[in-house]
């Protein structure tokens, strides 16, 4: 009686089984091929993640996300220059990594509650795929962010712009995650939808916990604790850091 209900008739039809298309079983030999597969044929990445002998791919996905977050963090640092040229990339990478690791256990629990047969390694692979795809998209936005960082001194405007880019990138990353779980016999996705909110809140709070990322401050890390909404509200009044 309390078991999750099967997908209703309003849910989309189950996708074809992974590997049904011959192109999906082609190995992913290197980083460039991994990026191409994420952008052009994400089912190929999902198939490879399900293979027992594919232990390297999750690490490749994690490495892509960390390198791309460093690169995008450098664009963030260009807004203020100085020590932010290395602090902003480090904080961006650390914030991304911590957000993923903090939310990984709850993602596995919610996937299990939803009836998924995914192992912890499968869930970690999908999460790293989410982060990799999101950060690749951020790199695509980097030239636009750079133009604005060199033509405005408004921290509020730049912060809003970067948040818009971040939400777009995470949206496509979450699409990859949800598509992956559809291939793992998940009967209900309510838990994953709830996890999406948790992950978003954790990532946004990380921008406050590691502030300043945009702008400058007297200390490398904050000396007081703040909720991210409170920090943003204070910033709009004082305009000192972001």
Structure, described:
This protein is an all-alpha fold and 242 residues long. It has one domain (26-238). Helix content is 66%, strand content 0%. The protein has eight helices and no strands. The protein has helices at 31-40, 42-49, 57-78, 84-113, 120-149, 155-182, 190-209, 228-238. α3 crosses α4, α3 (57-78) runs parallel beside α5 and α5 (120-149) packs antiparallel against α6 (155-182). The longest helix has 30 residues, at 84-113. 38% of the residues are buried.
Count of helical stretches: 8
Helix-strand makeup class: mainly alpha
Q: Give the overall pLDDT as a whole number.
A: 86
Name the beta content range: under 5%
- Give the proportion of residues in helices: 55-70%
Tell me the number of strands.
0
Note poorly predicted spans: 1-9
What is the radius of gyration?
A: 19 Å
Note the main sheet: none
Rounded to the nearest angstrom, the distance between the terminal CA atoms is: 49 Å
Shape: globular
Domain module tally: 1
Write the element-wise H/E pattern from the N-terminal end onward.
HHHHHHHH
């Amino acid at each position: 009686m309390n078991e999750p209900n099967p997908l209703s008739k309003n849910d989309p039809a189950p996708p074809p089984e992974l590997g049904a298309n011959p192109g999906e079983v082609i190995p992913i030999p290197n980083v460039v091929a991994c990026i191409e597969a994420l952008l052009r044929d994400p089912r190929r990445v999902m198939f490879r993640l399900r293979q027992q002998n594919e232990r390297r791919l999750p690490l490749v996905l994690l490495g892509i996300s960390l390198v791309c977050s460093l690169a995008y963090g450098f664009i963030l640092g260009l807004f203020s220059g100085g020590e932010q040229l290395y602090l902003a990339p480090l904080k961006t990478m650390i914030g991304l990594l911590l957000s993923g690791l903090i939310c990984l256990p709850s993602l596995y629990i919610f996937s299990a509650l939803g009836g998924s047969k995914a192992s912890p390694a499968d869930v970690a692979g999908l999460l790293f795929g989410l982060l990799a795809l999101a950060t690749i998209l951020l790199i695509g936005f980097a030239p636009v962010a750079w133009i604005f960082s060199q033509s405005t001194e408004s921290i509020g405007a730049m912060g809003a712009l970067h948040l818009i880019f971040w939400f777009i990138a995470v949206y496509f990353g979450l699409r990859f995650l949800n598509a992956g779980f559809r291939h793992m016999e998940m009967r209900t996705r309510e838990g994953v939808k709830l996890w999406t909110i948790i992950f978003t809140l954790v990532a946004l709070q990380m921008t406050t916990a590691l502030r300043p990322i945009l702008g400058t401050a007297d200390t490398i890390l904050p000396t007081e604790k703040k909720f991210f909404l409170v920090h943003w509200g204070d910033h709009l009044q004082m305009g000192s850091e972001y």
